[in-house]
């Protein structure tokens, strides 16, 4: 039986929610191995002058512990 650990990661992008999730995984991958899945817990946008300036996500990243 394997053990799975979950961490929470916050990321943002000026492009899209999809890009913010990709950035969360890329950043987590720098220090965490064996990432299996990402659950997007929350999404938000920052708005300036009626336009979206950044897309933000809070993700739960699951990975297998060796």
From TrEMBL:
InterPro entries xref list: Dodecin, Dodecin-like, Dodecin-like_sf
Superkingdom per UniProt: Bacteria
Gene3D superfamilies in the record: Flavin-binding protein dodecin
Listed name of the protein: Dodecin domain-containing protein
């Amino acid at each position: 039986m394997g053990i799975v650990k979950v961490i929470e990661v916050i990321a943002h992008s000026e492009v899209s929610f999809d890009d913010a999730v990709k950035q969360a995984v890329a950043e987590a991958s720098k220090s965490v191995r064996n990432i299996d899945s990402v659950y997007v817990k929350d999404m938000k946008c920052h708005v300036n002058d009626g336009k979206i300036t950044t897309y933000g996500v809070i993700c739960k990243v699951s990975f297998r512990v060796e």
